[in-house]
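Below is how a single chain appears once it has passed through the pipeline. First comes the sequence as given, then the structure the pipeline wrote out for it. We keep one example in the README because the format questions we get most often are answered faster by looking than by reading.
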Amino acid sequence: MFKGKLKQFQEKHVKNIIDNIDENYHELLLDAPTGSGKTVMMCKFIDDYLEKYKETVVLWLSPGTGGLETQSQESFDEFVSGIDSGDVYDFIKESDPSFKVFFINWEKIDKKSNVVLRENEKNDLYSKFKYCHNKNIDILFIVDEEHRNQETAKDLISRADPYKVIRISATPVTTVEFKEHIKDEEVIEAGLISREISVNEGISEAMETGEISEDNDLFLIEKADEKRKQIIEEYKKLNVDIRPLVLIQFPNGKPEYIERVKHKLELMGYGDSSGLVTEWYTGDHPDNVEEIKKLNGQYAFLLFKQAIATGWNCPRAKVLVKLREGGTEQFNVQTIGRIRRMPERKHYDNEILDNCYLYTFDNKFKTGLTNSVSSSFYEYLYKRKYNFWIPGMGIKKEVMDGYDQTAVNQAKVVEIIRNRMLKEADVDEDGRLSKEELMKKDYVFGTKLLSTSYEQVCKTTRDLVKVSNSFNIAHEINLHDDGFIIREAKRQIARAGNITENVSNNVLRILFGPTANKTLSIFSDDDISFERKNKVVVDLSLKEFDAFIVNNCDKLMKVFQEANANEYIIIKKANIIEKDWNIPENQYYKRHKLVAHNVFLNKNAFADYGDNILMQPNRSYTEIKFEVWCENNPNVEWYYKNGDKGDNYFSIVYEMAFARANFYPDYIVKMMNGDIWIIEAKGGIDEHGDSNNIDSYAKNKFDALKEYAKRHENIKWGFARAVGQFIYFSNTNWDENVYNNAVWKNINDIVK
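Resulting structure:
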C-alpha cells in the first residue's frame, strides 16, 4: 500500500506510465528534472504495478555514488507497506522473489571477484535470473540515474532479459520506445524546486565599486556566505528552523586548492573548531551524512568534488560555489539540481528563499551545461547486415608502428613557429617582436589573467546555456594558485600542434619565456645560446610569460595548428604497417533521442540504419547530402560510414609538420560495376560565401589519400563538399575555394 502523497503533476505522469506499460513497449523512460520526486513516483508506480502483476520481481538498479541504492530502499520502505524489499544478496537467497523489490548497486557488483557475478556458482546473480524465468516470474528493471556508468547496467539488462525496463534520469542518454517527460515548469509550479537560478548575484557591481578588484575565487565564498546569512534571516522571519547549506565544488585532483579554501574559511571564522565545515570527496556516504541532510543540521559549508553530483538529496542546500577547473570539465547539470530543491516542498513567496544561487568565475560552465543539457543524440549498436561481407575487396588499412611525437625535431618546431610569428607581426623587421608590435595584433601582455564571467537570473537549468549578461574580470597571476590554469593552456597549445606537452612547453619557453641563466639552470651553454638566438619576445618575467600563454592561448593554438598543417620538417618516420581490413560486424552510431526514423537507409552496410542519424550536428551537411546521394544513386551498391578512431576502422597515415597521425576517411562505397571508392566529406560554403571547412589538416589528408590510391591501384578516391543541393568532388588537387571549377566537379561526373 502506498502511504505517500503525490502532487497533481506526479499523479498524472505515474498514470501515463502505468497506462502505457501495458502496450507493446519494452523500455520506458521517465525524463524528469532533479527535485521532481522521481523516487516517490517510482514507489507509487511499483505499488500500482505489483498490485496488477503479482508474479513480478522488481530490480531497482542504482549507480554506487553516494549510496543511492540504500537511499532509494529507505524511501521505498517509507512510502510503501506490504511489499518486502532487500538488496542483491536477499534477491539471490530468496526462493520466491515475486511481489518484492530488490535494490542493486550496479557499480559495486561490477567486480570479477564478486561472488554474485560468478557464473556456475550455486548462488549467483545470473543463475537467479534464469531461476526467475524458469519459475515464470517476470523481471521488471528500474534503472535509476540511467545516464551514469551504463556498461554494467547494459550487461545486467542483457543477461537478465527483463520483461520491462523503466529508465529514470534528469539527463537521459538513452532513447526508448516510450518517453514520459516532466517539464521544469511543472515542478516549479508545484513548489518542489526553486523558482529561479541566480548566477553571480552582485558580483559585477562588486567589481565596479571596488569591493573586489580581482576575480579571486575566494571572494565568491564571501558572497556565498553573505547570501547564506540573508537566507537565515528570512527563515527566521517566518519562524522556520532551516539552516541553509553552501556547497563548494573543487576541481578534481587539486588538494592545494582545497587547503587554500579551508584557510579562507578559517579566516572567515569557520575553522575546524567551529564545527560548521564538512567534506565529502568519495562516492560513499560520509559518517555524518544524516547531519548534512537534516534541515537544521549543524554544517554551513560542504566541500566536495564530484561525490554528490548525482542522486544525493539535501533540500537545505541553497548556494553553490563552483571553482574553476581550467577549462576542461563539463559542468554537471546534476550538480545544479542539488541546490534547486525546496526544503519544505513549497515556495514561500519570498524571492530570497524561493531562488537558488550559483557563484562561479568559470567561464566554461555554459559549454559544459550545453553538452549536458542539449545533447540530443545517443549511441546505438548497429549490426552489419546478415552475411554482409566483402570477399577479396583487398582494402589495406595503415597504422603507425610507434609514435612520431617522440621524434619531433624540436629545433625545427622553434624555427617554424618563430618564422610564422615574425611574418605576422614583425613590422620593423628586426627579427624580434616588441610588445607594441604584438599588441597591434591583439596580443595581451601583463601579469593579470583576463577572463569573462556572467551574471543573470534564469528560470530553468536549460536557460543557463543562454546566459548573456557578461562582465570582464581579471586578477594578478599567482603561479601557485593558478598553476592548473597555466598547465591547461599549455596542454591546449600542445594538442593544437599535435606534439607532446614537453616539446610544446620547451618551444614556448624558448620563444617567449625569461632568458635562461646558466647559474640558475640546468641548460648547457649551447642550449642557452640557441634560446637567446631564437627568442621572439625578450624581457618577459616568469609571471608575464605565464600570463601571456594563458591570455593568448587561442591565438597561439591557431599559430601552432596552422604551422603543423602547412609546413613540413624532417622527422624520424615510424614504420607504417599495412593490415587487411573489412567492415566491422558491429558498430556504434549516434541517433536522435526523440526523433524516430522516418525511413531506413537500405544501402547502408548496417541493418536498421535510419535517417534519424542524418541530422545536424550529428552529421555535417556534406555527410547528410552524400548519404542521401548514395541512397538515390542506382550505381551505388552499398556504402559504409567509417568510425573516426579505433583499430576496427579503416585508416591511413598522413603527415603534418610536427608529427604523423591516423586519418579515418568518412566513407567506403561499393559501386555496381565493382569499383571501391574511399571518400572524405568536408564542409562546403556558408551563407556568407566563405569556406565551411573547419579542418586545418584537410590538404594534408587529401595528399595522403592521393598517395595511398597510387600505392593501391584497386582503390578510387576523392573528397566531397556540399554546396546547396550540389555535391562537388575532387581527386586531383585540394583547393579551399570550392567554386574553382578546374578542381571541383559535380560528383555525378566522376563517381559513376
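The radius of gyration is 30 Å.

See the next section for the split statistics.
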